[in-house]
Amino acid sequence: MANLQLNDVTKTFTEDDGNEIVAVDDLSLTIEDGEFLVLVGPSGCGKSTTLRMVAGLETVTDGTISLEDRVIDDRQPADRDIAMVFQSYALYPHMTVRQNMSFGLEESTTMPDDEIRDHVESTAEMMGIEQLLDRTPGELSGGQQQRVALGRAIVRNPSVFLMDEPLSNLDAKLRSQMRTELQRIQEDLGVTTMYVTHDQTEAMTMGDRIAILNGGKLQQVATPLEAYHEPANRFVASFIGEPSMNFFETELQGDRLVHDHFEYPLSENVRSNLGDTTHVTLGIRPEDIELVNTAEDDHDFRTVVDVVEPVGSGNNIYLAFEGTESDSGELETDDSRTFVATIGGLRQVEAGQPAIARIPEEAVHLFDSETGRALR
Ligand code: ATP
């Protein structure tokens, strides 16, 4: 086991025309002994580049990477005590599963052959692939190849696992099954793991902690629940959660946040978080909005149901603040008027119906409109 540290790590690529791309920008991150850390963010945010630098497949432009307090930047990939699993599995097609799994051990250790064989067989058993040992990758399903790729990483008994979207080629059912299995194996082995995904569900369900990247910059490192409940900024708030948080641009006037289509009163206590900020983005998660029968106070808003989207366990209901209808009688559903609420159960709601949406103050998130920083 080992802890992995990235200190002020920057990676710059220079394109053919001389343009510089800062793929990773001053990233500092510690992955604790035995921790499962998920690096998550949209396409192009620098996740793979980060992982590749840790693996030694890419040089570091600035900063250092350390394993157990020793800088490893100058070590060859094979000398880093790190195993990487790729999305593409990267199995040797002409070798059997057994050969694929034992190859790394034969190359890099002085382990006797019979010990390697035992080790490969017990790992194969753990991964449920012992019956596949004599097949070649071409004779395996995607899910089986994926297990072999993982088994090949595990058999080396590394200090650190790096995984780059290892489940993204699997179908949804297998992916969710493998998610649980991977977590179990990682926990059993207690190996420090850095796992890259663009899928926030994967991040939320698998990570002990998640590190959210955007544009090469670290946005927040937190447990999944912290990132959900206390996002550091608007980017994290919008990235975590499905459907995404609703955002409204408002201006503080007296004790109210004033929006083009509604006014939201703030209690003294909540207002005190704003400091001097007057341009405030109000955020509310779809699952925190309630539909109620009667408006009781000014946190309840008259709306019209625009679209109902059934999602099995309930409905995503797109609502529009009440307002003028256009000449054609259609609702004017510009972005600033519509928002989504997730309502569980079998409640019957139909497009065109009026609805009263309750936006509870305790569930409201507030952000500085200019910087995106969370104010509450
Ligand atoms: P994805 O989820 O799409 O794989 P990512 O978050 O893993 O994305 P990276 O692959 O790390 O992102 O890329 C980060 C940025 O660096 C992107 O703008 C990408 O175009 C750029 N980049 C990556 N590798 C190179 C390279 N070899 N040369 C030039 N630019 C690169």
UniProtKB/TrEMBL annotation:
E.C. number(s) listed in UniProt: 7.5.2.13
GO molecular-function term, one example from the UniProt record: ATP hydrolysis activity
Q: Which residues form a coiled coil?
A: none
- Which InterPro entries does the record cross-reference, listed alphabetically? AAA+_ATPase (IPR003593), ABC_transporter-like_ATP-bd (IPR003439), ABC_transporter-like_CS (IPR017871), ABC_transpr_MalK-like (IPR015855), ABC_transpr_MalK/UgpC-like (IPR047641), Mo/tungstate-bd_C_term_dom (IPR008995), NA-bd_OB-fold (IPR012340), OB_MalK-like (IPR040582)
ABC transporter domain sequence ranges: 4-240
One GO CC term, this protein:
ATP-binding cassette (ABC) transporter complex, substrate-binding subunit-containing
Any Pfam family the entry gives: ABC_tran
Indicate how the chain sits in the lipid bilayer: Peripheral membrane protein
Which family, according to UniProt?
A: Belongs to the ABC transporter superfamily. Carbohydrate uptake transporter-1 (CUT1) (TC 3.A.1.1) family.
Summary of subunit composition and partner proteins: The complex is composed of two ATP-binding proteins (XacJ and XacK), two transmembrane proteins (XacH and XacI) and a solute-binding protein (XacG).
What's the protein here called?
ABC-type D-xylose/L-arabinose transporter
Upper lineage: Archaea, Methanobacteriati, Methanobacteriota, Stenosarchaea group, Halobacteria
